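Each letter names a residue; the fold follows as tokens. Both lines appear below:
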Amino acid sequence: MLLTATLVGRLPTAMAPLALLLAARADHAGTALGALLAALYALCGAAGQPLLGRAVDRRRLASVALVAAAVAGIAFTALSVVGIGRYPILSGALVALAGLATPPLEAGLRAMWPRLVAPQDQQAAFALDATAQEIVYVVGPALVTVLCQLASPNAALIACGALGLTGTALVASRRPARVLSPARRTAHWLGPLRSPGLLVLLGAATLLGASLGSFNVYALTAADRHGTGWLAGALPASLSFGSLIGGIVWARLAHSAPADQLLRSVSVRFAAPFALFLLTPEPALAVAAAVLPGLFLAPWLATAFQQGDRLAPQGTATEAAAWLVAVIGLGGAVGTALAGQLSASGPGTVAALTLTSAAAAALALALRR
């Protein structure tokens, strides 16, 4: 129930970017403004997570997440009333507020897993969480599309606020979110960032995000090169499908090796298949090849969050998980921007960026054990 509630509360993170794009177009504000607002939402969401995570570590998940969800809900509702085209500056401020107030449900739940399940079941719990995340990015955009067809993009924006508040309220109603007390912590302005091992993990996670962001651009570039529009959606979908399968299998396996060793192994296996895309295969082969790195994406995330919990200084587990969430999103934004600049050179160049980012993540983890 707790996992399901967090998935509902996390739906706005997958819904809002598309809803903003469609709302901008409906208000005759242009796709450029919609894309700018979608990027602003993602960046502010990444910036707000560590701050809210630190607040959770000092208090409890229920109280912090409810306040954040209420603020985000008000911002989304006001945005639907104001209209993006009429007041673009005010719209930008509301989008930034909604992003900053994204409830820290993902980080909060992952910080709670070690206290909710036995040590031998933690790997499975983290894997299940990482696998279920794919549902958010499948259901969210589909829900926005349906709402826009049946009502309007403004209705989708209102739904972002309503679903975020509903899911957060369900999480807050569960005993762990209300009862689990913060662990004793040593006051330090850097929080979990004073852990050298965690800094290396955050660097690797940033590179992972960059590989994912650039891969989406690769999919679009490859679709243009081959004249097959469906490839732009099929390649990311194939990667997500592989992640779903890989996460399910990973959760069922018994892992005796330490988390850091597993993470290094999974990182190499995630990076290596991207070399296939340098060969620019036929579209059908590319879709099949995209499953291979996906098989190790959910295991990468599951093991990284488990290792992050172990590396975080006492009393900073939620903030550490929030930093991981934030840097993956930030890396994705940077990877998308860089790949966009390289896209004119063709899909092979973008694929090289994807491979380089993923390989650099594996190398960083290998050099710092």
